[in-house]
From TrEMBL:
Protein name: Methylisocitrate lyase
Catalytic activity: (2S,3R)-3-hydroxybutane-1,2,3-tricarboxylate = pyruvate + succinate; 3-hydroxybutane-1,2,3-tricarboxylate = pyruvate + succinate
Transmembrane segments: none
Gene assigned in the entry: prpB
Keyword Ribonucleoprotein belongs to the record: no
Species, as recorded: Ruicaihuangia caeni
Length: 300
C-alpha cells in the first residue's frame, strides 16, 4: 500500500546480490509509476527509467532537453512505487564532471539502485541513430570517476554507457569499455551492438556485468533472454517497449472511436476497472480506513 516497503539501500543491496548471481535480469522500462507496479506484479527483476520515454512523455525529442530535476523527479515517483530496483538513464550526466557528481547524488536521493552515464557529446541523441558523436576517452573517464566518487552508498550501481561502437567500431568500443571499468564503472552498457557476437565479445573482454539494450526499431536485433544469457549478458532492458505498446493501443482506440462512434469494441483489450483497482491496492487502504473499499467493482 502507498509505497515501496523496502528502503532504497535495501533495494541497492539486493540488486548487487542478484547481479552477482550470474543470472540474466530482465528490466522493462516503466513509463510512469503505475506501470512500475505492473512490472513488479508480473515478476520482472527491475524497472528501467528511460530518458527517451521521459522526453517523449513530455512531448520532447530525446536530444538532451530534459533537466536533471525532471529526471530526478520522475525517478523519485517511480522508485517509491516499487520494491524492485530502479535503473535510471542519466544521459551524459547533465554537464561537466562536477555536474555528473551532483547528478549522482540527486539520483541517489531519488532512491534509484543504479544509473548510467554515457560518453556522447551534447546535444546527445538516441544511441541507435546515425550521426552520433562521442567525447574523447579522457573526458569519458572523468565522468565515470566523478560518478563513482560522488555516491555515498557504495551499493549504488554506476554503469558506464559507451556509444562509440557506432562511431569508431567494435575494437574502439571494447577499449573504451575497459577504460571506463578501470575508472570505476560497476557495469557497462555497450550501445548499439550489431549482433550477438558483438555482445559476446564485449562480455568476454570485461569482468563486470554487461547490459543489452533491446529497443525496438534500432540497430540491434531483438534477441531472446536465452540468447542474451548465453552470450554472457547480465541485464537486459526493454526501455521504450511499454510506452510504444500503450501508444499503439491508444492510437488504435482513437481511430476506432472516430470510425465507429464508440470505443465499445476496444473494451475487451483494456485493463478493467477491477484490474486497475487491484494494481492500485484499493483494498490495502482499508487498513487505514475501512470506509475506502466498501463497494463492488464492475468488470473482471
Ligand atoms: C536506452 C535509451 O537511452 C533510452 O533513453 O531509453 C534509448 C532508447 C531508444 O531511443 O530507443 C537509446 O538511446 O537507445
Ligand atoms: Mg537514453
Amino acid at each position: 500500500m502507498l509505497y515501496a516497503t523496502t528502503s532504497a539501500a535495501e533495494k541497492r543491496a539486493a540488486f548487487r546480490e542478484r547481479l552477482g548471481s550470474g543470472e540474466l535480469l530482465q528490466v522493462p522500462g516503466a513509463f510512469n509509476p503505475l506501470s512500475a507496479r505492473l512490472i513488479e506484479e508480473k515478476g520482472f527483476d527491475g524497472v528501467y527509467i528511460s530518458g527517451a520515454v521521459l522526453a517523449a512523455d513530455l512531448g520532447l525529442p530525446d536530444i538532451g532537453l530534459t533537466t536533471l530535476s525532471e529526471v530526478a523527479g520522475r525517478s523519485t515517483q517511480i522508485a517509491r512505487m516499487t520494491n524492485l530496483p530502479a535503473l535510471v538513464d542519466a544521459d551524459t550526466g547533465f554537464g561537466e564532471p562536477m555536474n555528473v557528481a551532483r547528478t549522482v547524488q540527486e539520483l541517489e536521493d531519488a532512491g534509484v539502485a543504479g544509473l548510467h552515464i554515457e560518453d556522447q557529446v551534447n546535444p546527445k541523441r538516441c544511441g541507435h541513430l546515425d550521426g552520433k558523436q562521442v567525447v574523447d576517452a579522457d573526458t569519458a573517464v572523468k565522468r565515470i570517476r566523478a560518478a563513482a566518487d560522488a555516491r555515498r552508498d557504495p551499493n549504488l550501481l554506476i554503469m558506464a554507457r559507451t556509444d562509440i561502437r557506432g562511431v569508431d567500431g567494435m575494437a574502439a568500443a571494447i577499449d573504451r569499455a575497459k577504460r571506463l571499468v578501470d575508472a570505476g564503472a560497476d557495469a557497462v552498457f555497450p550501445e548499439a551492438m550489431r549482433d550477438l557476437g558483438e555482445f559476446e565479445a564485449m562480455c568476454e573482454s570485461l569482468d563486470v556485468p554487461v547490459l543489452a539494450n533491446m529497443t525496438e526499431f534500432g540497430k540491434s536485433e531483438l534477441f531472446t533472454a536465452q540468447q542474451l544469457q548465453d552470450a554472457g549478458i547480465r541485464i537486459v532492458i526493454y526501455p521504450v517497449t511499454l510506452l510504444r505498446s500503450a501508444m499503439g493501443a491508444a492510437e488504435r482506440t482513437l481511430d476506432l472511436i472516430a470510425a465507429e462512434g464508440t470505443q465499445a469494441s476496444a473494451v475487451d483489450d483494456m485493463q478493467t476497472r477491477a484490474q486497475l483497482y487491484e494494481l492500485l491496492d484499493y483494498s490495502g487502504y482499508n487498513a487505514f480506513d475501512s470506509g475506502i473499499f466498501n463497494f463492488t467493482v464492475p468488470g473482471r
